[in-house]
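Convert to structure. Protein one:
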Amino acid sequence: MAKIGNIDLGDFPLLLAPMEDVSDPPFRTLCKEQGADVVYTEFISSEGLIRDAEKSIQKLDIYDKERPVGIQIFGANLESMLRTVEIVEQAQPDFIDINYGCPVKKVVSRGAGAGILKDIPLMVKLTEAMVKHTHLPITVKTRLGWDHDSIRIMEVAERLQDAGCQAIAIHGRTRAQMYKGGAQWEPIADVKNNPRIHIPVFGNGDVDTPEKAALMRDKYGLDGAMIGRASIGNPWFFAQVKHFFKTGEHLPQPGIAERVETAKRHLEMAMEWNGERAGFFETRRHYTNYFKGIPHFKEYRLKLVTAEDKEAIFKVFDEIIEQFS
C-alpha cells in the first residue's frame, strides 16, 4: 500500500504526470474519471507565483473531485521557494511536489528543474527547508542524473528521504537524454530495493502500454507508475491499465462516438474554466490526439485545427461521427 503522508493511494497507484500545457483541471478531470489515482498540476514557477503572474496563479486551481492532487512547483532560490510554499498552502492541495527533473532549457538555465541535478547539496537544502516550512507532505520528481557520467540517483533518494521528502517519482532518463532513447527502469528499481529507502518510489518514462505498467509493478517492484505522454488525447489509458491488471485482457479502444463526446466535454470544461476564447484555443492541440490512429483522417484533422469557434468545431465533430461510425 503506497502512502504520501497519511494519504492511502492503494496498491500500485497510477499517477497522471505533471505536464506543461496538458495537466490542467479539465484534462485532470477526464483522467480521474478513467481511473487515475493521483493527479498533479502543471508545474508552476516559484518566481511567477511570487510576482503574481496570472498564468502561474491560475495553475493553482484545484477541485475536490480531483483529490488526491499535488501542486508541483519549481525554482532554485530558497527564499522564493519558501514564499511559494505559503501561497500554495492556501490552495489546499493534498501535497506539494518539487520538480527537480524538467529538462527544458529555459528552466534548466536558471538552475531549476533538472538544472539542480548539478548541485545536489542545493537540492537537499531546498527540500529540507520546504519540509520544515509546511504542514503538507513534500514529494519530489526528478531524473536519474544530469548525464550518463553523473548518475547519483541512489545518493539523491537517500538524502531527499533524510531531508523529509515523503515520496519520489523518478523519470528513467538523464537530463542529457531529454526524451530520447529508452527510459531505464533498473536504476529506479535499485532505489526501491535499497533497504534504507522506505518512502514510495514511483517510476516514470515510457509507460505506454498496460503490459509495461504491469512490468513496472511485477518485475521492477515499484510502488506506482507515473503516466505522461501515453495519456495525452487518451485519458482512457488509466482504465485500460486497470482492466489489464484485473483480467489480463485488453479493453477495446473507445469508439468514435466516445472519442467525440470526450473531446466535446474537454472543450466545454476548458471554456468554462479558462474563458471562452482561451479555453477554445488551448484545447485545440488536444483534438488530433483524440483521433490518433484513425485511417484517412487527414481532412478532418485540418478542419479541427482551423475551426474558429465552438459551433464550427461541433459541426466537424458531427461530420466525424457521420463519416467514421
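Protein two, convert as well:
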Amino acid sequence: MKIYSNEIVFRGHPDKVCDQISDAILDECLRQDENSRCGIEVMGGKGKIFITGEVTTSANIDVELITKRVLKSVGYSTNYEIIDNLGKQSLDIALGTNDSVGGAGDNGMMFGYATRDNEKFLPTAMVILQELSMEYDDLRKKDNRFLPDGKAQLTGIYENNQLKYIETLTICYQNTEEERKITDQILKDISGKIANKYNININNFLINPTGRFKIGGFEGDAGLTGRKIVVDTYQSFAKVGGGAFSGKDLTKVDRTGAYKAREIAKNILIDNNQLSWCEVQIAYAIGIEEPLSINIETDLGEIEPKKALYNDCKPKNIIKDLGLKNICYEDKAKFGHFID
C-alpha cells in the first residue's frame, strides 16, 4: 500500500486562462493560414494581459478581440489592458523547418504514457479530477455562486499501483462566499458521483482549507502560459517533457511529439493485452528531420522501436497524421492536453 497525490487546476485558473488565450490566437492563425509558425506566450495579472512571442503568418488576426472572447468564455471580466507584443519567428529557425527540410522546430524530449486503468488509458485518479474540473466549469455557468478560479488535489491509497480509495479530496474553488454549506455540499455530491463511476470511495474532503476564496483570477494571482505542464500531461503519474504545449504550431515538437508519443503508447497497449502500462520518449534536434531516439518502456520491460517508427515520428509525418481539421487547440488547453 502507498499514498500518492495528484492535482488539476480548473479552467478559470490564471495559468490555464493564459494557455487558452495562447491557443485561441494560434487557432485563428491556423484557420486562416495552415502554414502559420507560432510560439505565443501570455502573462496576465492586475488589470493587464501581456501577449508576446513569435508569429509568422498571412492571417489577419485581432489579438484583443480574441483575448476578450476567451476571457468572457472563461467567466472573467473583459476589462483588461491588452498589450500586443508579438513579433515574427526567426528566419534562422525557418531554415530547418520549411517544407523542403521538414526538421523539428526545437530540441527536446517528449513523453507519452498510457495505462490500462480504464477505457481512457489514463490513471483513474487523473480521470476523476479531469471530470470534476469539467463538471465545475458547467456548474459555474449555471450557478453564479461559483466563480471561475480553482483547483483540486486527490490523495489516494494505492495497492499494486491501483487506486483503491481516496483518503482526501482537496477542492479550492472561488465563490461568492454566500451559502457556503450549500455550495460545499454540491461539490461533495458531484465528486462522490464521479468517483462512484470508477468504484472509488472518498473518505475525507478539504474544501477551501483557508476558510475563504472570494478573490481569484487575475486579481488574486498572475497567470503564465505553460506553467501547468504537469497538469497538461499526466499529473505526475508519468515523466514530463521539457516544453509547454499551448500557443505552438505543429512544427513545434514539444506539442506534436508529445501527442505522437501518447498515440504510440496507447496503440502498444491496445495491441498487447499482457501490458499494464507503457511510457514512450521521443527526442529531437532542431532542424533535423528524424528523431534522435525513441525509447519505449513497459511494465514488462523495454520494447525495441521498429525503424518504421522513426519515419512515422518525423515532424512532417506527424503533422500529416494529426492534421489540422477538427482540431481546436484552445479546447485542448481547457482541462489538460491528454484528456482524450
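The radius of gyration is 21 Å. The first strand starts at residue 2 and ends at 9.
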